[in-house]
Amino acid sequence: MRFLRNGTWTRFSQAFVCLPVVLLSLAPTLAHAATQYVAKFVCGTPSTAPPEGDVPRAALRPGTYTTEINIHNPNGLAISFLKKAVKARPQGFPPQPPSRFRQETLGPDFALAVDCTNIFELFGESFVPFSSFKKGFLVIVLPTGSGPLDVIGVYTVSAGASTATGAPVSMEVVPISPTISK
After folding, report:
1. Domain boundaries, the chain
2. What's the whole-model pTM score?
């Protein structure tokens, strides 16, 4: 398909150069009419002492947790999408706002790894494995009609302060299924 632009005929495929700008401008509405992938993240070393006024919880055992969310574009065309991080707070504590959306574009058969450092950066913070801790969700939003992505969560935990000391490491790989939000 061709259209007239600045007095010259241009192929329709060149119009997709504007797609990233359109995606960012639609960020508030995309979350309500799009395909989403929601991956759990657990990053850092949780404090052994519960937060003030909280009771001890046994959901996470002592150790150092890391997460890497792998995103692959199996399609024949580039795909632009938005990502944000949402912190999960214990029940009874005030919720915290999610990070802002950040746009990413993957070419055909390209992949991206989002790790704990990247997740902390979404919140404007630095990740220090043995002194910081966050858990929550990485939300990946595609415009309706975009081809699917392959999204895999890779989760590891080390029982000791360092894997160099020979502390046992556990790893789990989890495929993340898409959901359609309206």
Report:
1. 27-49+59-181
2. 0.75
